[in-house]
Design goal:
CATH superfamily of the domain at 170-238 and 320-435: Naphthalene 1,2-dioxygenase Alpha Subunit, Chain A, domain 1
Radius of gyration: 24 Å
Helix content: 25-40%
Shape: globular
Number of helices: 12
Strand content: 25-35%
CATH architecture of the domain at 170-238 and 320-435: Alpha-Beta Complex
Bound molecules: FE2/S2 (inorganic) cluster, fe (ii) ion
Structural class: alpha+beta
Strand order of the largest sheet: 13-14-17-18-19-20-12-21
């Protein structure tokens, strides 16, 4: 029987953790998206931008999520402030995108003007208005805070402190020294999928076998572990070990794969190990040394050469893929000296679309830092290619969104333990916000 495509019966849209059933309307229904706007996006700390997006006094950055727009501005005192991006006169949106103003912000409709702290400083032809208190027409503040280079905003008038919101993540990530990393590239792509379709698709390792089979040659999906970190979560994917599902799941198979030209960071690490050599063109390790031993050795040696402080990193943090989820919409795929942030923002015009932002961070050498070009954020067309692994996800996940329309499907079905546990936990936490289960 066909399921209705719109329902306002929110109770029927709860995730059912005891059965693993996820009502598909959560990904389709415009009323459910409004519920998220009201009860999720207005309550959480959202990562908005990076501090280098606001390079000097008067720089501004517009952050849009759901039906709300926030304007972040750097003041003359170097302090970042955030405001609702609306003119209190007749509602004009004050600024869009990024840019800078001098020492004042004027609305382009009737030129009411504020200083960079949001204080009203000028009202043209004021005599025609009934008497009013300027303080009532200050720009409305939004909470803003910075963690490492990440600028977060919160629309809740009385939010919990950002560090409390991030909870165990800050301690987990401290040994990586993200304060010393630089965002070297960033892009936004429109995506034909609900934002949660994309989040779900980035939380499990279960899809490697279907979507990224090439990764199984040196990533072990079956011994990947999962950790709930308050409302956030992590998974730790062992590298340098083949999945039992891979073709030729042997040490030599992994070594051949990692030693291939162009195999990225892992390839560089293994080649740094004194126990690695090519014998007659064949990648070889000193007998008794495993691929993981060589990766650790290569990683520590790289750190020494580049004078990077990896002392706080365990061997696993040094060589494995540690994958963090910052509830509700950011994935941090973390390696030593390098990480990738992926963020999904709902498209207010259509619950079946979202914006996918991708940011690449690297720990640069002093020379690299000195000679780097200013990062220009790129806005790409739908379907643009950004790299083999994300392109595989971007091809796969819009098909899931299309599949949700099928009359042959009423619910999604999740494993609530093991490989899909983070997806399941995500929906449980989301429902705590949406239904007030434990707020
Ligand atoms: S709407 Fe902004 S000055 Fe009138
Ligand atoms: Fe993926």
């Amino acid at each position: 029987m066909a399921t209705p495509t719109v329902t306002h019966d929110f109770e029927s849209l709860r995730f059912q953790p005891e059965t693993g059933r996820v009502p598909k309307q959560r990904y389709l229904d415009g009323e459910f998206a409004k519920l998220e706007n009201e009860r999720l996006w207005r309550k959480v700390w959202q990562w908005a931008c990076l501090d280098d997006d606001l390079p000097g006094a008067g720089s501004f950055y517009e952050h849009q999520v759901g039906d709300q727009s926030v304007l972040i501005i750097r003041g003359d005192d170097d302090v970042l402030r955030a405001f609702h991006n609306v003119c209190p006169h007749r509602g004009n949106r004050l600024r869009g995108g990024t840019g800078s103003v001098k020492d004042e912000l004027a609305c382009n409709y009737h030129r009411w003007t504020w200083d960079l702290e949001g204080k009203l400083v000028r009202v043209p032809d004021r005599e025609g208005f009934p008497a009013f208190d300027d303080a009532c027409f200050a720009l409305r503040k939004v909470s803003v805070d910075i963690w490492n280079h990440f600028v977060f905003v919160n629309l809740d008038p009385e939010p919990e402190p950002l560090l409390d919101y991030l909870g165990p993540l800050t301690q987990k990530l401290a040994p990586y020294h993200w304060d010393l990393h630089t965002c070297t590239a960033s892009v936004t792509l429109p995506m034909a999928a609900n934002w949660k379709t994309m989040v779900d698709g980035f939380l499990d390792v279960y899809h490697l076998q279907g979507v990224h089979p090439q990764l199984l040659r040196y990533t072990d999906d079956e011994t990947t572990t999962y950790e709930a970190l308050g409302r956030h979560s992590a998974m730790y994917m062992p590298m340098g070990i083949p999945s039992p599902k891979a073709p030729n799941p042997t040490e030599q198979g992994v070594l051949n794969e990692l030693a291939k030209p162009g195999s990225g960071i892992m390839g560089k690490m293994i080649r740094q190990s004194p126990h690695f050599q090519e014998v007659d063109g064949k990648p070889t390790l000193t007998p008794g040394f495993t691929v993981r031993d060589a990766l650790v050795e290569g990683g520590r040696r790289t750190a020494e050469e580049l004078a990077r402080d990896y002392a706080g990193l365990t061997d696993e943090q040094l060589i494995d893929d540690h994958h963090y989820f910052f509830f509700p919409n950011t994935i941090m795929n973390v390696f030593a000296g390098h990480f990738i942030a992926a963020r999904m923002r709902p498209d207010v015009a259509d619950p079946e679309r979202c914006f996918f932002d991708l940011f690449i961070f690297n720990w640069l050498t002093e020379e690299e830092e000195a000679s780097k070009e200013k990062r220009e954020h790129e806005f790409l067309e739908e379907g643009a290619k950004v790299g083999r692994v994300p392109d595989q996800d971007f091809t796969a996940l819009p098909k899931v969104q299309l599949g949700l329309h099928s009359d042959g499907l009423e619910n999604l079905f999740l494993a609530t333990q093991g490989q899909e546990v983070r997806v399941s936990d995500f929906h449980v936490i989301l429902d705590e916000y949406l239904y007030g289960d434990s707020q």
